Amino acid sequence: MKNFALLGLLLCALFGLEASAQYKFDNVLYGASFYNEYMPTERLDEDIRLMKQAGVSSIRIGESTWAVIEPQEGVYNFEWMDRVLDELHKAGIKVIYGTPTYSVPAWLFHKHPEILAKHVQGGQAYYGYRQNMDITNPTYKYYCERIIRKVCERYAQHPAVIGFQVDNEVEARGINNHDHFVDFRNYVKKKFGGDIAKLNKEWGLNYWGMNINTWEEFYTRDGVTSPSYKNEWERYYRVMLADFLNWQCDIVKEYIRSDQFVTHDFMTAFQNLDQIESCKQMDYPGVNVYHAVQDYQDGQLISYAGDFMRQVGKSGNYMVMETNAQGIAFGDSRGQNPPYDGQLRQNLYSHLASGANLVYYWHWTTLHYGHETYWKGILGHDMTPNRVYNEFSVTAHELEKIGPKLVNLKKNNKAAILFSHDSYHALEFIRYKDWNNYQVYDLHKALFQQNIEVDILSCDKVSDFSKYDMLVIPSLYVATDELLNKIDQFVRDGGHVVMMLKSGYMNEYSAVRPTLAPGPLRKAAGIHYQEFANIGNLPLKGDPFGVGEDNNVFDWYEFLIPETATPLAYADHPFFGKWPVITENNYGKGKLTYIGTNPSQKVLQKIIRKVALESKVIAEEKVTFPVILRSGTNDQGHKLDYVFNYSDKDVTVKNNIAEGKDLLTDIKYNLGDEIHVQPWGVVILENKK
User: DSSP assignment of 223-267, as one string?
Assistant: First the structure.
């Protein structure tokens, strides 16, 4: 083992090689997280035998092993991991190795309790849990760096290792330690160029007399009520997390070979961190996707994760580092909902249809102790083959045959959702309803169920929309004039926009613009308003979208006053019905549809479908849920069309998609033919033209 590490370091020193990702996916990688250190008995050989039998091509290891590899300070035990990697290599199973920094050993806490996180309003993290440390603490980072270097020295040159995952599911987790606050204060000072007067003005700190005169007076987050302060605090969390991950990446890249990569397993709660900035030093982004199964399996969250992660990395593809195998549970035994027959296989192809190149289940063998005892892996507590193992095996052997045609799928979507971290948080700080103040999931559902494929763009980072014909925008509550003007230009140039309530209301400092709403969007929207109201459930006058009993709007009502816009819907109410609440406006070469309320899902779908047809993003004959269509182009330049059936009944779809052969059955379909899809099934058409 040591020879591998020394050889790698020598080569880097002699030739000054700068490690960069050259790993190329020539097939889909399919496997699970594997924790030999958790096994109740010695069974490495048996686990590897079962993996080979099932067709496992790759696994993830190592992210939870700090206390096992370094059981005492400065004392290292690698021999057991050497054997794991050596045996996996003999079996031809590729490995992604996780830097073990998200769970600190007991000796480190005992010696340095100051590394534990302190939280807003005096809360204190305790030992006995994971991710309970202040990741900015210099002592924690010292020991972090040491274990990362030890691991990389040992294993970066191992032939089984194709890449490294830095840390695990990183989030801020409410860190409010003193050093973190000082760093935040310095960040704010730099952002405002040291101009306290500007800070007081832009944040409105004169309110309640909370203005400061010196930077030493800048107060901690604990008792803060200012939305401006709170949103900037969340921005700094995102900066801090990106710095932490990029710092780890820089260390790992000192050791890795040119044919290896670096990744991280982001969570689907995108609002907690800046994935684009955090992925700056990474080669392929990874994501953990846990979703509903059985009667609630619909593929949307799988698609949502992919639609976002494709925009994060450099290649347009990504990896699923964790997803459901059987039941999930955290600290209890609820959530025991194993997939129906066929659903595990369907989910694998759903990930690939969104652009994933790797899918891992969490995890290989179900744990026999600990907080996640009932988070079930591919193998259950008895550690023997079962129904899920058998379905995994069928799917894995399919990938051995057709995986080279599915990997590296590229998509060219003409619609996008703009996601705003700032708006999400601002709406949480000043809510207009109890939950779901930011409509991104509702909008994505409306697009997904109508087979309108989208990209999800982080508009805090991305403002070039020229490749798209249609933008769908959840409440863009906090935004710069520059961003709003770019949306205005997008419409003028011929783009079509669907925009939700409260957009344009606040500037980048989370302060209300002292102008008629919606501020810089007024011309593009063709409306203004001065009043708004909280509402319950109101019907729309005359069922303008033809949805029957779902003809409702909820929660919020803006009293829209058309200037150049055409009203599309009014509330059926003696007072609120005086003002339209949904409008459309022709502006330049394009059109903006404004929704000043929360409509029912069916109303939302009708509005989005109307705009998608007008913008030519879709054609009229598109099928809808439970049949879901996904498409892209493979490495061979062939078009792939996935046809999913998210139901427990057989479905038949007329082939208006493309001529092609189903890669799974070799059945050829001509245009106009009927495509039969089994319950929880999938057809994958390859068109070589």
Answer: T---HHHHHHHHHHHHHHHHHHHHHHHHHHTTT--TT-EEE-EEE
What tokens were used for 316? Answer: 């347009």
**In 73-189, at which residue ranges do the beta strands (DSSP E only) sit?**
94-98, 161-165
How far is the first Cα of the chain from the last one, in angstroms, to the nearest whole number?
49
Determine if the pTM surpasses 0.90: yes
User: Which of 343, 374, 377 lies closest to 360 in space, CA to CA?
Assistant: 377
What's the CATH code, domain 415-614?
A: 3.40.50.880
User: Per CATH, is 2-176+257-406 categorized as 3.40.50.280?
Assistant: no
Cis preceding linkage at 626, omega within 30: yes
Which pLDDT tens digit goes with each residue over 422-464? Answer: 999 999 999 999 999 999 999 999 999 999 999 999 988 777 8
Under CATH, to which class is 627-687 assigned? Answer: mainly beta
Tell the residue number behind the tokens 């590229």, with chain if given: 410
CA–CA separation, 387 vs 407, rounded Å?
26
pLDDT one-digit tens code per residue, 184-221: 999 999 999 999 999 999 999 999 999 999 999 999 99
Task: Give the Cα separation of 507 and 426 in Å (integer).
Answer: 11
Are the beta carbons of 596 and 373 closer than 8 angstroms? no
Tell me how far the alpha carbon of residue 177 is from its chain's centroid. 27
Give the pair of three-digit tokens for residue 160: 């089984």
Q: Where are the domains of the chain?
A: 2-176+257-406, 178-219, 415-614, 627-687
Residues 6+ apart with CB under 8 A from 537: 552, 553, 554
| Amino acid making up residue 640 | L
CA 284 to chain centre: 13
The CA distances from residue 483 to 4, 24, 230, 460, 648, in Å, are 50, 36, 21, 9, 45
Q: Mention every residue, 6+ apart, whose C-beta is less than 8 A from residue 390.
A: none
Contacts of 190 (CB under 8 A, 6+ apart): none
For 267-314, write each residue's pLDDT tens digit: 987 678 899 999 999 989 999 999 999 999 999 999 999 999 999 988
Q: Are 30 and 57 in contact (CB under 8 A)?
A: yes
Evaluated on CA atoms 468, 469, 474, 475, the torsion sign reads positive
- Residues pairing with 555 in the sheet: 535
Q: Name residue 325's amino acid.
A: A
Handedness of CA 193, 198, 200, 203 (dihedral sign): negative
